[in-house]
Amino acid sequence: MLLAVIASLAVVAMACGGDSPSSDRDLDDVIVLTPTPAEVNCLNGTYPDDAPAFGDDSMVAYETIDSGVGVFKREIGEGTAIKVNSNVRVHYTGFFADGCIFDTTRTRVTEASFQMSGLIQGWQIGMADMKEGGKRRIKIPPEVGYGAAGLNISGFVIPGNATLIFEVELVEVVE
Predict the structure, then answer these.
(1) What is the domain extent for residue 46?
(2) What is the pLDDT of residues 1-34, one digit of tens each?
(3) Assigned domain for 165 exists
(4) For burial by CB atoms within 10 Å, which of 65, 69, 124, 172 has the most?
(5) Angstrom distance (rounded) from CA 175 to CA 80
(6) Poorest-pLDDT segment among 30-34, 106-110, 138-142, 144-148
(7) Catalytic positions
(8) pLDDT-derived band of residue 170, with 50, 70 and 90 as boundaries?
(9) What span, in angstroms and rounded, lies between the C-alpha atoms of 52 and 124?
(10) C-alpha distances in Å from residue 145, one per residue of 34, 38, 86, 130, 152
């Protein structure tokens, strides 16, 4: 398999090459492909069977809203609405586009508590009109997630340019 990849890269390199480098091309035109780091820890093996599953994400009918964030509203919720500076308690599961679970509250004793203004922009956009009891799937492009740099804090890794998909349940808005 590795040999086939190397051979394919050699063919592409020869097809793109010439007698001399083009003076019209700058480094901004070069696309660098980075594999998902090996240190990403998928939690799928410990994920509860009764928790929201990833399924076939291509079948989800997202509504695209601000900054390319996709939202699929599973349950609207009838409780208190979120405000920009609200503190919230949520259950969530974070998936990469390949279905790898990278973080979840479903294996913990309790929900997570956050201040809305401290969350990544994609969460803020995707949760903006939620009410207590609401459940939704939020698809966050890298530009409003962790960007090109990604995240690596004490071994918790989100690769650069990762699209993130979250199943979110708003348990409580704390005024």
Answers:
(1) 36-174
(2) 333 333 343 433 444 444 444 445 454 554 444 4
(3) yes
(4) 69
(5) 9
(6) 30-34
(7) 92, 102-103, 120, 146, 166
(8) very high
(9) 21
(10) 17, 20, 20, 19, 13
Task: Give the residue from 126, 105, 107, 123 showing the smallest Cα distance to 115.
Answer: 123
Q: Is residue 134 a contact partner of residue 77, using CB atoms and an 8 Å limit?
A: yes
Buried residues in 152-175 as b, exposed as e (16+ CB within 10 A): eeeeebbbbbbbbbbbbbbbbbee
Could you tell me the pLDDT band of residue 155, with boundaries at 50, 70 and 90?
confident
Express each pLDDT in 105-115 by its tens digit: 999 989 999 99
Task: Give the residue among 1, 85, 78, 94 at the shortest CA–CA distance from 43.
Answer: 94
Please report, for the domain that includes residue 58, its CATH number: 3.10.50.40
If we measure between CA atoms, which residue out of 111, 106, 84, 108 comes closest to residue 95? 106
- Asked if residue 141 belongs to a domain, the reply is yes
> Per the domain annotation, does 54 fall within a domain?
yes
Q: What is the pTM of this model?
A: 0.75
Single-letter code of the amino acid located at 49 = D
